[in-house]
């Protein structure tokens, strides 16, 4: 009987059969021996003896049987799988739209999840590409009075620590700088780092070419050298190995190219050259006050972070005591390099990854719901199959195969989407996100895709198999006519839809918070107006060497810029909001009657600066042309600076001492107070600023600032031409629009917001589709009931309300669950929010309203359909 | 009585198939049948016999079924399947040609 499938015996069954068979042999043999004349007992013994080693015989037979049973079972499973896949494929082909919808939904979910899993893996989880990255620390200082306000280290302090602290194997301080190189007769300005001895001992990377300089290369007697970034090597040196050992003129001085850093060197910040400070001496070495150098260190072997921190604190206090004048007491903090580097993106990236995961769950719920609806619609077919002898397990397997087929298609497409998504993430992510260049599709992504596929197949397949398996034959045949699969399948779908609503609410609320904080940031008062402001950074030290020459140059330049058509105000200054600082922007100020100085944000500006930046005057006056080198030294304070120095008393006409490394440099009269502006960051607190007139403290490192009436971009050329007239031989840096600078610094925030908003939009669509599908089915199921009600005189509006209420009931359930969860976990968002509470009531109410609006819209058509039931047709049917 | 001959390698399957070709038979019966039909010239070692039976069953040459033996015991009965019959025909003809060839060589010397 070939079609009768032999049930596969289990191991104990095999063992029993073999034993019985051999026992039978023994019995027959004994019988024969008795016939030959043996006594029954002797026959038994003789039979056993003749058969030999019975146990060995038994075991080898069991092994033989077991092996072949296993082989046969595998063959059967394989052929059944082929049958199932063919069957599933036929069903999929019969309903391509259903399959397409399911596959696309899942693929989108998988693709998004993979993109962000890949990004989180490459950026946050993988160790930094340096030797023992977890032993690298960064060092920070902050006033004891205000620990939240962090700054770097003063160079003198850094050198003291490097010399004295034993628990570090190396410590280096570095500072951003810029060097010019010559290319085709023109000078190009390149961002660089000035680094002290030990830099490459701390950040131990493997160079792409050349050899990283060691301690001896920092000796004052050794040749000037430079280490270049991978980008610089590719773009400026043609990626040639012969570039190593060649010389590059930096600011006109030849530097030997010592090594090329790997592309994934995490400590770059867009700067391309690493230039040594060979022997730090003089004022810089002794400067233990200006905390604006970046400091990092490598732990010595077998030293813990805590031990190092303790020793560093003591050494820092000792170093502070060597400063010539008392400063406000400062603490020292140790932060691991990975935290310092990745901390800013961690919150946002984790949020996006979590959102992507939620989206995947929603997609899976949608696909499950679709499959279940489909299974329920096929109930009669399944019942028929069951009645002609297909086992429940067999049917379940067939349904799962269909789910598996769809999941595999979705997984493959999702993997593709994930790879593409990762590519776009690298292209579009704000360049301030660290380690972007390490982002690429690798085999781990495929493994994750396979795992997700298996998980989704199991989830969706099990769900529909359960719904199918739950119905017995009788019930199935009874409910088959309405295609509902009975209340059980419907309940399960309802639960799925409510879950979707809850997840969508979570996504909506999170993106709502981000949106609210975006609005609050962009509408916040920054203290200046960026519109129509142009700036060019430049250094004129090499041309105008004396203060008098610099002052004359500044005055002439402002004069010339004012003459450019459309210019409303022009100035030179040492700092600009959001721009990189170009020459130390901290000053120490002391009230003449006080003993302690405070460090404030200080900048030197020409008279037009406040007008150029739209910084409003609060009291007194701004600077004028009369505040010259020969006249009384004056100063303008921002409101916050005035409050820090003078409290609530009026600062006008009071005197302050400007200190230079502890010694009084000048005594100045406060002539005006202006509004606070945010120089450091848009999200940061206002800076307490001190303005000095340019004519009294001229300098060669300047921003040339102009404010324009009308279109700024049109004026670019005219401004550059005007500057070139006065600086014909100097490399001109890029002209910056303050507005685009603002846009740039808010890019990470905008990027996260846009992504999250699109996730939320997808979530809404998925939820609406889920709700719509469920209610449409419900109307079909209840067609007869609706018909009877209508025949008995129910108003169409009553029926409509009945269906609407069903949709809104699920929405209310899901929304409240989602909001409860949101309120519980939204505290985690605090780091990425600005000016809005994590439990912002407006967001919560808004999300609930939006969800109900969407639910009403999605339920409307099915509800309308309920009122159009033809009572006669409904009751006659079936 | 003459001492039974040891079986040549490869002949056991042939003998087993032949012995199971008349009607369903259990292992003991197959062993007896081979001995009887050879007038006691061939003797089957039980371990090898059961290995052969199980192997042929898994190859689909024999079908097995549990039943009751002539003296009322539960026993596993083996019967030739169509595939087994085919195999028996092939093996038998091969053996006959082999035997004839060997005999011819020996007698012609």
Explained architecture:
- The complex is a heterodimer of chains A (878) and B (109).
- Chain A has 878 residues and is α+β, with helices and mostly antiparallel strands.
- Helix content of chain A is 54%, strand content 16%.
- In chain A, helix 4 (96-125) packs antiparallel against helix 10 (337-377) and helix 5 crosses helix 9 (305-321).
- Chain A is globular, with a radius of gyration of 39 Å.
- Chain A starts with 10 loop residues before the first helix and ends with a helix.
- Chain B has one domain (11-108): Winged helix-like DNA-binding domain superfamily/Winged helix DNA-binding domain (Arc Repressor Mutant, subunit A, Orthogonal Bundle), CATH 1.10.10.10.
- In chain B, a hairpin with a 5-residue loop joins strand 2 (62-68) and strand 3 (74-80).
- In chain B, helix 1 (11-19) packs across helix 4 (82-108).
- Chain A binds chain B through residues 17, 20-22, 24-25, 27-29, 31, 50-53, 56-57, 60-61, 64-65, 68, 72, and chain B through 26-29, 31, 46-47, 50-51, 54-55, 58, 66, 69, 71, 73-76.
